[in-house]
Amino acid sequence: MLEGFINTHDNFIYVRAMPHIYMSLNIACYNIGDYEKSIKYIKKAILLFNYFEDEYYAGRCHLNYINSLRYSGNLDKALEIVNRCKNKYKKYNKLYLSFFIQEMILYFNIGNYNKVMEISNEIEAHQLSEMSEHNYEFMLGHINYLNKTFDDAYNLLKKCEKYFFNQCYYRDLLLLYDDLYCITNDTSYKAKYNQLINKTGRKNIVMDS
Question: For the whole model, what pTM was predicted?
Answer without folding.
Answer: 0.91
